[in-house]
Amino acid sequence: MEQPSSRMPWSRFVGAATTSLTRVFLQEDVNFLLTNRIPRRYATLFMGWFSRIESPLLTRLALAMWRPFADLRLDEARTHEFNSLRECFTRELRPGARPIDPDPDVVVSPCDAIVGACGRIDGTSLIQAKGFPYTLMDLLGDRELVDKHRDGWFVTLRLTASMYHRFHAPCDARIRGVTYVSGDTWNVNPIALRRVERLFCKNERVILDLDLPEPGRALTLVPVAAILVASVQLRFLDHPLDLRYRGPNRIACDVAARRGEELGYFQHGSTIVVFASGGARLCESVVEGATIRVGRPLFRWSAPGADRSIQGEPDA
């Protein structure tokens, strides 16, 4: 009897094999094993080296192997030709691809992302996933910053590997300092968040406390690194913040940022946790599992003294 593969076109055979491999990889236990039970630091350092290799042919081959595992869409990218994987991961978009909501009472999303856990902060306690709490002090490590966001709001924004990896200012603000916290590189996908307690508090992260022009309002961004990433490049710093960084944990600066202006980028996919307090309310369209893009409403500022027990307003 003739083997089925002998009558199957090679492209279909490869496609079927890749689909089967993808299904295996996406099984929760296998995914967790492959992405977290390996030497995370060395895998991350290797990926950082590999992604910087400048070879258009190697890049095309790597992207072709990667596509079955991720919904990589480059139709909005400024260019479709890349000399390295890093160029693809950190790609820019065409002008106008992400319109920014102009309402001054709206805090816009700093990145393209899938919304994870979100809602009110219970005193200083919040969640990374159901049944897995952590505290503001665990993540921020700064008593003054913790007090700013006590009983405020939070949202976790997860950037998948195939998404646009640059992040932007959610409103007009000044950045007067950057705090870098060295740590681990656990995967930050939902599977790991349901299994590893206080995961965000264990990983490499950068804390950006934004100085807002309106008194009493507070907004903080916490980009969290992950396996194969562990590198955040801020546009106003000369060096990336990554596993090789050996500088001070607190970096002084004084940078003005306009709403929608680029702040930096991850070198793969990762997470940004956003905190807002002092009259902020989470917009109703921001719910767990929703996809949000740069420039879309995330929080809305209410009048001073307004009741903040109601979650947001409908968005246009």
Describe this structure in words.
With 316 residues, the chain is an alpha+beta fold. It folds into two domains: 9-89, no CATH class; 106-301, no CATH class. Helix content is 24%, strand content 28%. The protein has helices at 4-7, 10-26, 28-36, 40-51, 56-66, 85-89, 136-140, 143-148, 190-193, 199-202, and strands spanning 106-108, 113-120, 125-129, 132-135, 153-158, 166-168, 173-181, 205-211, 218-224, 231-234, 241-242, 250-257, 262-266, 271-277, 280-282, 291-292, 297-301. It has an eight-stranded antiparallel sheet with strand order 12-7-8-9-14-5-2-16, with no helix packed on it. It has a four-stranded antiparallel sheet with strand order 6-13-10-11, with no helix packed on it. Strands 1-17-15 form a three-stranded antiparallel sheet, with no helix packed on it. A hairpin with a 2-residue loop joins strand 3 and strand 4 (132-135). It is globular.
| Class by alpha and beta content | alpha+beta
Number of strands: 17
> Mind describing the biggest β-sheet?
8 strands, antiparallel
Beta-strand fraction estimate = 25-35%
Number of domains: 2
- Strand arrangement, largest sheet? 12-7-8-9-14-5-2-16
Q: How much helix is in the residues? A: 10-25%
Q: Termini separation (Å)?
A: 63 Å
Coarse shape: globular
- Low-pLDDT runs: 1-6, 17-28, 305-316
